[in-house]
## 1
Amino acid sequence: MSLLQQDKSHDAAPRSGSRRMIDALKRNGVKHIFGYPGGAIMPLYDALVDSGLTHYLCRHEQGAAFAADAYGRVTRRPGVCMATSGPGATNLVTGIANAFMDSVPMVAITGQVPSPLQGTDAFQEVDIFGITLPVVKHSYVVRDVAEIDALVDEAFHVATSGRPGPVLIDFPKDISVELSSDLRERPLERFEAPEPDAEAIRAAAEMLATARRPLVIGGGGIAISDSVAAFREFVRRYRLPVTTTLKAMGVIPTDEEGFLGMLGMHGNEAANHAVQNCDVLMVVGGRFDDRVTGKLSHFAPTARIIHMDIDPAEVAKLRRPDIAIVGELTPALEALERHADRHDAAPRVADSWARQCAAWRKEFAWRYDAPGEGIYAPRLLRDLSRHGDQPPVIACDVGQHQMWVAQHCRFTDPLQHLTSGGLGAMGYGLPAAIGAKIANPDAMVVNVSGDGSFMMNVQELATLKRYGIDVRIVLIDNSMLGMVRQWQKLFFDGKYSEVDLSDNPDFSRVAEAFGIRARSIGRPEQVDDALDWLLGPDGPALLHVKIDPEENVWPLVPPGSANHQMMGTGGPRQFDGMMT
Amino acid sequence: MRHLLHIQLRTAEGAVIRALGLIERRGFRIETVHAGEAQGDGQAMTVTVSGERPADLLQRQLERLHDVLWVDRPDEAVQWGGQDSTHTTTSGARPFTSKT
């Protein structure tokens, strides 16, 4: 039986497609929407008035999508963004791709030209369904007003279930104005996560029990699946050394003794040496990204791998595991513990390995005694995240400052760190901070940005001002596209190409023009007072921080190298097992 | 290496192109395609692909799509952990357990 042959039932009174869409969003728990109106989506904006939903007019559709992304990360419910057809829709694409790469629940609604005009190159027509096929978890074109209710329910289920992701709903204008009382059901197949496989659990528990040099990599899936408590319980109980990916910073408090820091290209050396020397590597909700593994064939060369993930398509995508446990992380971790208890087979950490990890952690602790007279950004970021009792939520952009945030800021929860991990989209930070603050109004939310990234969505200062959203901004300005400059310096013989931003605008005056308080500093002795000012009681503000244009992010695994071959370090380390 | 895939799809806008697009994007060349109505409900597609990457991974990537009901590789035993590993122990459960 095809969908079109299904029975139709009837609603009480005729409603327009737009009214149905709004009602369905509300039924699915939506309270906030980020968007920008335009021709083809005007009926939906008409229905929005007096709907009870709060709409935030961002000043570029990309800003709306990034705000919805951060809202989705913080609430674990789909962030909703909407835009009109054509350019409105294409401007959403980067934000949708961002949510796809980082497994963020999102529902994006795009206006579309009326059905009879589709395929005629009509004004503001673009095939957004086709354009977004590779970057959505799923997508729909609404073809029948009677199916809107069921379609939206399905979209929210798909966006949030299993491995979350963005879902696009393309909404032709004629359907959005059509009145109908018909209702058509859709057979919704609910996702059910598989139970952790008993045989895999047994094998993994035995592997951990016979390990001598185990290591755990925490991945982004831990926060997505709300498995932080189970993860902490597991690694603390057995005193397992832990490193995390960029997206998982905070799944274990960064100051905790067993935490070795982030691993990978700009990871802490302690973490990278531990990975290269461990004998069992348990990856929890991670996906072996190339920035994590370095040269894949040389990654964790002496380790047997246990890979835990909800998504079977991540298993053996890059590194073939010895044991894969597919399913929700919390039940899997609990099952491992139960097996260990019953069979007296607790994961083992050899004393010499524990001492070695502790020694590396001490040896490679970050230092803040950098030479030079200017402000040292890592030190400032360290102080920023330790300013209050609780670390602030930091939404950062992409580039050098992003790596410094991951290296030097204190996190006690993964939702304190919002970053464009997989896509690496400059311009994410400011709109993400807006989305995070709306999702969690009680949190102190700080956007840490760079001068390159900040200009990519600077217009969202107007959103900040319009709604009085209390976001604080630290703009680290080296008048360069710093990460690109660093790579050109290191890997392109110092031949700089299009990285000079020395003609940046006066950022303080830019902020003030938008009605945001601003202050500019450039000397170390100004930092303490400036942070007090920025994080004080007076609401939104921008702190413009001038730093040395030649500052680099260290250490660094050069492209194509193994993780132990880091630049800016003391060289590879090998565990000899003889530590006393 | 060549692989034969039987793909069962829902009848839904974009289902065919979404599956074919994924095959190319994930590193395989499409050699032949035959698509039509399935017996009963939905659409069926038989695709011959070639590529160096593991076909079991492609199968799981296809099965992740919402409109894909199941994928069969009649010429090859389905292996989760891969052809070269004797230690692999994995859950045999499918992500969408309600699919039949």
## 2
Amino acid sequence: MTPKKRAALWRIALLVGAVGGLEILCLSGHIDRLTMQPPHRIVMDLVALLAGGELNGAIAKTLRNAALAFVIAMVAGVSFAVLLHYLRSLRDMLDPVFATYYAIPMFAFYPLLIVLFGLGDTPQIFIGAMLAVVAVIVNTLNGLDRIPRVLLKTARVNQLSAWDTARLVMLPCAAPHILTGAKLAVAYSLIGIIGAEFIMSTGGMGYEISFAYMNFDNAKMYPLILLILLVSIAINTLLAKWEKILMARRGLS
Amino acid sequence: MTSIMTTSKPITPTRTPSAPGAAQVSLRGVDKEFIRPGRSGETVHALGPIDLDLRRGEFFAVVGPSGCGKSTLLELVAGLSTATRGDVTFEGKPIHNRIPDGVGVVFQEDASFPWLSVRENIAFGLRRIKIDPKERERRIENALAMMGLTSFAHSFPAQLSGGMRQRVCIARTLVTEPRLILLDEPFGALDQQTRLLMGDEVLNLWRKTGATVFLITHALDEAAMLADRIGVMSARPGRLIDIVETGWPRDRDSRIVQEEAFGAITARLWRSLRAESMKAIGKPEVEP
């Protein structure tokens, strides 16, 4: 068995052990029902919630806004990283900001964003995108820094414009690093959107989780948390598979 | 095999004897200076003055000690860099920091795009050329066949050996049907046997395409085997101190390394180069 397969088996065993342990603790009454439902119950409630369709609107709103935040973060992050790659002095100026960026409590700006963008979804999307964008910038820059000079010379020999060089050489070359940024951006976008909905919103999964939390409605809260987890894992698995294909082509898997 | 002719030229900057107008590439009084990084305004005289004519269809190699500016010379001819002084022209037109049409470059390092298949890598060379799809396919198929890559067309560079990856880069240059092919130590990273075989392939494509080839190499035997003429450069600032005409027939291959004359050419190159190489490593030659 390969080390990777062995690690995967251990990971599954650990997960099954943790969920099984939680199931036993819940069923035996060591964790009371008011605190947490047993895992099998959470899954059943999730299926019921999805089948009933009562939260479909909230789920769609959150996923749509998270997707928007993710796309904005990717487009803005990759474009800005390419710009910074060319403008060394601007990059030197901003490097310390990137290093300390995640120490900034982004949600504290929510009231200001409401003043700026109104009470709609825009402030939430803005927060999601702002949380995700720096992960994209930092990882893209990391990839761009590692482009072999000879590939850039080849671009010049083939008379590529700056735009075509970025599009056809720099970004494909940096793709594995950009994908790492994308994986982080998925998580940050979801955290940003759900966190913002949690604080001040009238809809979305974050709002529903917050509402259920306030009302001790475990039959709604935990299934929604599980759903977020599943969506995040599914997207990350897809990106990881894509990354694996890219790396395999380059002989790096 | 025909006899070898080595011209006895003086050890001074040399101008080739080709008639005015016959040269495809011309360098006149070319100098290159770099600003030394980290030291305000201090310049390094890297190259020159160089006067050189490349004749249309010839195979010209340049040898010289490490750091003498061989690759800088190639970059000037390629339009990847601009001369501090002097003129570089290709087919009579000045080269100003822009790759002229009809010029292809193959570098020492692996320049294949790892995210593209062999076929896509080769097709990449045709991006700047507007040709109809049939002609495009014909050129790609020809380049694949000429470089022995047909059965690897859908492989990725990571699945190929170093020599095959270099052949992909040569094929990418070939599809553009260049009139001047610049090779910057293209076999530097390969083992000796592969280098000899790659040399045969380069000679073969030189004959088939009729292009002028300008080869930069640190290997004297490689230059002696491949070139019609060999320019020997001094230590920095690199100048041409000798030009050796090999007199090889056009249909030569790597078997000429067995010829007596091959040893004579290599010996002549080393005689011209030894003192310069000593200078380059900071040990000026002392006469015994």
